[in-house]
C-alpha cells in the first residue's frame, strides 16, 4: 500500500480553517471542495492514459487521453459527497458510482445502506472519496467491495486519517494495489473513535446537522 501525505502550505492553511469549530457549513463545504481538487492532482498521478494523435493549427502531434474503461470515482455517502465536485472538476470524464455507508457510533462497525456501482469493475481504476479515515472500517469495506467486483486498483482520497486506521488498512490490503492520499495524518483516535485533533463529524459539519 502506498501512502501520500500532502505537504503544501496552501493545503495546511485550508485544513486549519476546516478544523476550526467556528467555521460555518457553507465555508466548510467550499474548503472541502478546494482541498479535494488539490489532493486529486496527486491522487490521479498514475491515471492510465493512451497516446493520441491530434492536429494543432500548425502541425500534427501526439499527446495523451485518459484510457478506456474510464476511471470510476466513488464518494462514500454521506460525507464523501462533499468531495465529489472537487474531484470531477479535475477529471470530468470519470464515471461516478455511489456507496452509502454508516458507522455504528457504539460498536464503530460500518454497514452499507446504498450501492449504485457498475456490476463489473474489471480493469477499472477506482478513486474512493471519504474525508475521514478513523478506525478505517468504512474505507476498508469500500475497498473490499470494489476489489470483489474486479477493480484493478483503488486510490482513496481522505482529508484526515488516524494512524490506527491507516495501519489497520495497510495490514488488511497487503499485496493489493491500494494508494491512500491524505491532507494530513493526525495524532490518534480518541475513546469514541474520533480523530484527534480532527475536525469533528465531517458529515454533520458539511450538511449542517450540528
Ligand atoms: C464517517 C466518515 C467515514 C467514517 C469513518 O461517516 O465519513 O465514512 O465515519 O470512520 P471509520 O474509519 O471508523 O469507519 P459516518 O458513518 O459518520 O457517516 P456520514 O458520512 O453519513 O456522516
Ligand atoms: N467520522 C467523522 O466524521 N469524524 C471522525 O473524527 C471520525 C469518524
From TrEMBL:
EC identifiers of the protein: 2.4.2.9
Binding site for uracil: 195, 200-202
Swiss-Prot/TrEMBL keywords: Allosteric enzyme, Glycosyltransferase, GTP-binding, Magnesium, Nucleotide-binding, Transferase
Domain Phosphoribosyltransferase per the UniProt entry, residue ranges: 5-209
Cofactor note: Binds 1 Mg(2+) ion per subunit. The magnesium is bound as Mg-PRPP.
Cofactor(s) listed: Mg(2+)
Catalysed transformations (reactions): UMP + diphosphate = 5-phospho-alpha-D-ribose 1-diphosphate + uracil
Regulation: Allosterically activated by GTP.
GO molecular function: GTP binding; magnesium ion binding; uracil phosphoribosyltransferase activity
Cellular component GO terms held in the UniProt record: cytoplasm
Residues annotated as binding 5-phospho-alpha-D-ribose 1-diphosphate: 78, 103, 130-138, 201
Recorded metabolic or biological pathway in which this protein acts: Pyrimidine metabolism; UMP biosynthesis via salvage pathway; UMP from uracil: step 1/1
Family matches, as InterPro entries: PRTase-like, PRTase_dom, Upp_B, UPRT, UPRTase/APRTase
Record SUPFAM superfamilies: PRTase-like
Record-level GO BP terms: UMP salvage; uracil salvage
Family (UniProt): Belongs to the UPRTase family.
Function: Catalyzes the conversion of uracil and 5-phospho-alpha-D-ribose 1-diphosphate (PRPP) to UMP and diphosphate.
Protein name: Uracil phosphoribosyltransferase
Native source species: Microcella daejeonensis
Lineage: Bacteria, Bacillati, Actinomycetota, Actinomycetes, Micrococcales
